[in-house]
Write a structure and sequence with these properties.
CATH class of the largest domain: Alpha Beta
CATH topology of the largest domain: Spore Coat Polysaccharide Biosynthesis Protein SpsA, Chain A
CATH architecture of the largest domain: Alpha-Beta Complex
Shape: elongated
Strand content: 5-15%
Order of helices and strands: EHEHEHEEHEHEHHHEHEHHEHHHHHH
Distance between the termini: 96 Å
Radius of gyration: 28 Å
Largest sheet: 7 strands, mixed
């Protein structure tokens, strides 16, 4: 049976969707796959890249033209969303009529295993969508969206019925007969567009009672939740079929928290033709977080200044020692003062980026996304600052003692 996969994207999201599809094709080689990409204006270059990817695995790539102007702007509650995310509300209107089932996959996912067991799953008890619970929308979450969410959505969350729309397996033959974009937009109008996650909210409300839940820890594991629950890289790689990088993205460098499970995304990304561009993009955005890295470099400079002050204090100490003893004296060299202070330069300067080799870039990305590496570096800077300050205080105290002897 053909596996029909649907996703939505624009040119900006092509590299990331490309990585998702690459991971899908790599781990589902035994299946014939037809991909339907909902798009408004993909460039010819993007279409060529995606088509060649599918063809390389003997799979199909279809570009489904969408009219962005046909979608109501009021669906987007904030600028965090693009209209492409709403394209899935019109799937029933635009996809081929002979499709019996389809699986929708977000572009910020990694398909880490053969998902045939999921795709071939039977719809039971008049259920027509197979989904997973949204891992950030649990009964413990409370009214997470406040004024942007109406009571009805909070009820779904409290009753543990709210699903994440990143992965949806659909009984498409049935859904196509009963729902279309016009139905979802009427629901949105009835809610006075008091929605936050535009398509996800409407899908949840429209299909309440029609959903069959599977384990999110296997089929839609949020990478951030994996970190919180101590699912490390090895465990996720071994046990999880679909990893979803919600929130901050693994391809974006910067001051946000990084964690080891991001390495799994990079494992696949580095196997694609987009690898070099993704590496450069990560490093560029990483150094672009000037406020965070300015703070790091200021701390480094502060420590360097203290080192300079210690060196000056030692020079003074030597002179005073010579005056007291009438000779140069056997005093420690300045380098010995720093013997117990590690020279950690795990965060290169922005200027170093220009001369980094590909392997150095890969190593840099891996170090940044290692659990707590940046936080560890900051902690080391603070410890180094404390250590150096103590050494400076001791050096100055020794100088004062010698001055006292001279007086």
């Amino acid at each position: 049976m053909m596996m029909n996969v649907v996703s939505a994207l624009n040119d900006k999201y092509v590299p990331y969707t490309y990585v998702m599809l690459y991971s899908l094709f790599e781990n589902n080689r035994s299946r014939d796959i037809a991909v339907y990409l909902l798009q408004a204006d993909l460039s010819d270059a993007s279409k060529k890249d995606l088509s060649e990817l599918a063809e390389g695995y003997g799979n199909e790539m279809h570009f489904v033209k969408m009219d962005r102007d046909a979608f109501d702007d009021r669906l987007l509650a904030t600028h965090d969303w693009s209209m492409e995310t709403c394209f899935r509300l019109a799937m029933n209107d635009v996809l081929p009529a002979d499709l019996d089932r389809v699986i929708y996959l977000d572009g910020d996912m990694i398909i880490n295993k053969d998902i045939s067991p999921l795709y071939d799953m039977a719809f039971k008890n008049d259920k027509h969508l197979i989904v997973t619970h949204d891992m950030t929308m649990t009964p413990d979450s409370g009214e997470v969206y406040g004024d942007l969410h109406t009571e009805v959505f909070n009820r779904l969350i409290r009753e543990n019925k709210y699903f994440n729309a990143g992965m949806i397996l659909m009984d498409f033959a049935w859904l196509r007969q009963h729902y279309g974009y016009s139905d979802y937009i009427k629901m949105a109008e009835g809610l006075d567009f008091e929605i936050f996650a535009p398509d996800q909210d409407l899908l949840n409300l429209m299909h309440e009672g029609q959903t069959q839940f599977v384990d999110a820890w296997e089929y839609d594991l949020f990478a951030c939740n994996a970190f919180i629950k101590n699912y490390d890289y090895d465990r996720v790689k071994k046990d999880v079929s679909i990893i979803h990088y919600v929130g901050e993205k693994p391809w974006r460098g910067g001051s946000h928290f990084h964690y080891g499970v991001e390495q799994l995304w990079w494992d696949y990304a580095l196997g694609t033709d987009y690898a070099d561009g993704l590496l450069d993009g990560f490093i560029s955005t990483h150094f672009g977080e000037s406020k965070f890295y300015d703070a790091i470099h200021q701390a480094e400079q502060f420590n360097d200044n203290i080192r300079g002050e210690i060196t000056a204090a030692i020079t003074t100490f030597k002179k005073l020692y010579a005056l007291v003893n009438g000779q140069s004296g056997d005093v420690p060299e300045s380098d010995e003062v720093f013997a117990d202070v590690p020279d950690r330069r795990v965060i290169p300067d922005a200027s170093e980026n220009i001369s980094m080799t590909r392997d150095e870039k890969i190593d840099f990305v891996r170090r940044v996304i290692s659990d707590g590496s940046v936080e560890s570096y900051v902690s080391d800077l603070r410890r180094e600052n404390t250590s150096l300050q103590a050494q400076l205080d001791e050096a100055l105290k020794a100088c004062e003692t010698l001055r006292g002897v001279l007086q």
